[in-house]
Write a structure and sequence with these properties.
Number of domains: 2
Bound molecules: NADPH dihydro-nicotinamide-adenine-dinucleotide phosphate, 6-O-phosphono-beta-D-glucopyranose
Distance between the termini: 26 Å
Largest sheet: 9 strands, mixed
CATH superfamily of the largest domain: Dihydrodipicolinate Reductase, domain 2
Order of helices and strands: EHEHHEHEHEHEHEHHHEHEEEEEEHHHEH
Number of strands: 15
Strand content: 15-25%
């Protein structure tokens, strides 16, 4: 099955921070792949903007190197790269100074979509918005794309929303959460709302609990100074995992429209109960000793802060206080340096109310697992009779739908989240972007949790690299008579 490609309208996309890490790893390679796919029209232009003193040729060399490094070889076509590079320009600009703004204004073309990607440090977002407005570079139809983190608490998120709102309408602001651009995350909505099968069961009467796991094998080395001020709660839970939780827990929107979807997500966030210390486990990875393969530094060494209490792992038991989910907890966990890289949502249904087959391990079955990465797909495990003459013995088997098997190799040519999201910006579709009130509500829930452990002076528990996290996290479920699913790549 080949994905349909509908070209977007011609555009001028200015990438502030166009020489930075995110631009090189995700934004520019993503744009090239959309160009290769025929989705980005020949009339489109990408204008890199940063302080470095470069001309178009110098910047094109940077973009070419980024394509070389971050686009898979099978997609690197010299002739297409050359045509793509001809669409690339550069303007040297300082977000906090006056240099370059007039040149940028002169560069913009009338009659095409104007989009401005803020891929710079969050402290510069306000300056960019102000100057785009002051120099009349943005028009009423222009869009700004704002990277994460969007604030570090409710007060800073509100302040940032206010600065952006002074110059742009909410309809022009695209707050990125790249998890919303992941194919399987969107599929979650398709599965829930395009099939009748699941909806009758999608509530506390039939769902015992939900597990959301985002496990990573990488540590925080290289990003230590950012990460140590953030931690897993701010870095992953407040945004990415919150979005996943919302998509599972929300009511069906009346249509697939940006505000209809975001209204429903907002209701979920507002219904989240406060989380007490007994429902939180935080962890920090230890060093990997040399006798365990290659020695690796501990979290404290990675962030160069021996007294850090920041968590590289967190597990939480979360309750959604509404009719649908009363009594069904959502267990969330995420961490660095865990056993495998895997992101998975598991809807664990209740066991049959009465077993006519005697003792069996039916807790293993009745699980709908949605794998976000790797090996995107869905798996529904059910109990069946064990084959053979051994009587009525039961076993669990997967009804497995790997997207790769179902859709074939071409169907699996899934765009990276950034590719999808940037094209949505040009199309003017905000469905997969966070609205200002949503972000504020997420911080309003997050702040007291963080303030709580700060006030108590809680220290994260140590865990070994390559493990499933701190031992205490197991207890979070054991004490409720439940168990985590295995972290498997
Ligand atoms: P980098 O530090 O790698 O890049 C920063 C960019 O901003 C450079 O192009 C730099 O170029 C430019 N810049 C710095 N100061 C100014 C200024 N005063 N005026 C204009 N341009 C300036 O950062 P990242 O690319 O890693 O991150 C960019 C944004 O994306 C951040 O908000 C980050 O939180 C977010 N993000 C990044 C991720 C990643 O994986 N890298 C993941 C998720 C979010 P120059 O020095 O030439 O001006
Ligand atoms: C980013 C976080 O937003 O998401 C990182 O800042 C994390 O710490 C990353 O590693 C995970 O994204 P993905 O797409 O690799 O699961």
């Amino acid at each position: 099955m080949v994905a349909r490609v509908i070209p977007v309208d011609p555009f001028d996309l200015v990438v502030f921070g166009g020489t930075g890490d995110l631009a090189k790893r995700k934004i520019l390679p993503g744009l090239y792949i959309r160009f290769l796919a025929g989705q980005m029209p020949e009339e489109a232009r990408i204008i890199g903007a940063a302080r470095s003193d470069l001309d178009d040729a110098g910047y094109r060399a940077i973009v070419a190197a980024a394509i070389d490094e971050f686009v898979p070889q099978a997609k690197r076509d010299a002739a297409v790269i050359e045509r793509f590079l001809a669409r690339i320009h550069y303007v040297a600009i300082d977000a906090v100074g006056e240099g370059g703004w007039k040149a940028l204004a002169a560069h913009m073309r009338p009659g095409v979509v104007r989009a401005f990607y803020f891929s710079v440090a969050p402290s510069l977002f306000g300056d960019l918005a102000e100057r785009l407005h002051a120099h009349k570079i943005a028009d009423a139809d222009s869009r700004i794309v704002v990277e994460k983190p969007f604030g570090r608490d409710l007060a800073s998120a509100r302040a940032l929303n206010a600065v952006l709102a002074a110059h742009f309408d909410e309809k022009q602001i695209y707050r990125i959460d790249h998890y919303l651009g992941k194919e399987t995350v969107q599929n979650l909505m398709a599965v829930r709302f395009a099939n009748i099968l699941f909806e009758p069961l999608w509530n506390a009467q039939y769902v015992d609990h939900v597990q959301i796991t985002v496990a990573e094998t990488v540590g925080v080395g290289g990003r230590g100074s950012y990460y140590d001020k953030s931690g897993a709660m701010r870095d992953m839970v407040q945004n990415h995992m919150m979005q996943l939780l919302c998509l599972i827990a929300m009511e069906p929107p009346y249509q697939f429209d940006p505000d209809a979807v975001r209204d429903e997500k907002l209701k979920v966030i507002r219904a989240l109960e406060p989380v007490g210390p007994e429902d939180i486990v935080r962890g920090q990875y230890r060093a990997r000793p040399a006798d365990d393969g290659k020695a690796e530094p501990s979290y404290l060494e990675d962030v160069d802060n021996a007294s850090s209490r920041t968590e590289s792992y967190i597990a939480l038991k979360v309750r959604v206080a509404n009719w649908r989910w009363q009594g069904t907890p959502f267990y969330l966990r995420t961490g660095k340096k865990l056993r495998a890289r895997t992101s998975e949502i598991a809807i664990v249904f209740k066991e049959a109310p009465h077993s006519i087959f005697g003792e069996n391990e039916s807790w293993k079955a009745n699980v709908l697992a949605i794998r976000l990465q790797p090996n995107e797909g869905m798996n529904l495990s059910v109990m069946i009779k064990e084959p053979g003459p051994g009587g009525m013995r039961l076993t669990d088997v997967p009804l497995d739908m790997s997207f790769a098997d179902a859709l074939g190799e071409e169907g699996m040519d899934i765009p990276d989240a950034y590719e999808r999201l940037i094209m949505d910006v040009i199309r003017g579709n905000q469905t997969l972007f966070m609205r200002g009130d949503e972000v504020e509500a997420a911080w309003a829930w997050t702040d007291p949790i963080i303030e709580g452990w700060d006030a108590r002076g809680d220290r994260p528990k140590g865990y070994d690299p390559g493990s499933s996290g701190p031992e205490d996290a197991l207890m979070l479920l054991h004490r409720d008579g439940r168990r985590w699913r295995e972290i498997r790549g």
